[in-house]
Amino acid sequence: MPGPGDHVLVSAASGAVGRAALRVAARLGAVPIAVTRQSSKTGELPAAGAAAVVATDRENVAEAVRRHTGTGADIVLDLISGPGRRNLLAAAAPPARP
Q1: Does residue 71 form part of some domain?
Q2: What Rg value do the Cα atoms of the chain yield, rounded?
Q3: By CB atoms within 10 Å of each CB, which of 28, 32, 68, 86 scores lowest?
Q4: How many contiguous H segments (helices) and E segments (strands) does the chain have?
Q5: CATH number of 31's domain
Q6: Would you say residue 61 lies in a domain?
Q7: Helix (H) or strand (E) holding 90
Q8: Measured between alpha carbons, how far is 67 from 23 in angstroms, rounded to an integer?
Q9: DSSP per residue, 51-79
Q10: Kind and range of the H or E element at 85?
Q11: Residue whose C-alpha is closest to residue 20's, from 82, 77, 88, 98
Q12: Residue 72: which of 84, 54, 55 has the closest Cα?
């Protein structure tokens, strides 16, 4: 469960479940970081609670998350799985909570 100040990385953030995860994390006091595949969808995510947005079609997830957090994400919520999972896990701060 995220707590105040935790950086929570949410993949597929532009979908309905991703947006819900952003809202829940924000309400719990965490700092939600949205990940989406298309930069065209980044503008709508701050309204869903994202403190930062990473578009994988133009940025490396791990580098962008470290730039926003300094250390990486405390919690990684992977709603897709698949080949992009390694990039999400590379964005985690040790010791991250899955």
Answers
A1: yes
A2: 12
A3: 86
A4: 3, 5
A5: 3.40.50.720
A6: yes
A7: helix 85-90
A8: 22
A9: SEEEETTTS-HHHHHHHHHSS-EEEEE-S
A10: helix 85-90
A11: 77
A12: 54
Q: For residues 9 and 77, is the Cβ–Cβ distance under 8 A?
A: yes
The range of the structural domain enclosing residue 18 comes to 7-97
Give me 15's structure tokens.
């979908």
- Using an 8 Å Cβ cutoff, are 35 and 9 in contact? yes
Answer whether 24's CB lies under 8 Å from 91's CB: no
Q: How many domains does the chain have?
A: 1
Tens digits of pLDDT across the chain (98 residues): 889 999 999 999 999 999 999 999 999 999 999 999 988 888 999 999 999 999 999 999 999 999 999 999 999 999 987 777 888 889 999 875 55
In this structure, are strands 73-77 and 92-97 parallel, antiparallel, or unpaired?
Answer: parallel
Asked if the structure places residue 2 within a domain, the reply is no
Residue type, position 78, single letter = D
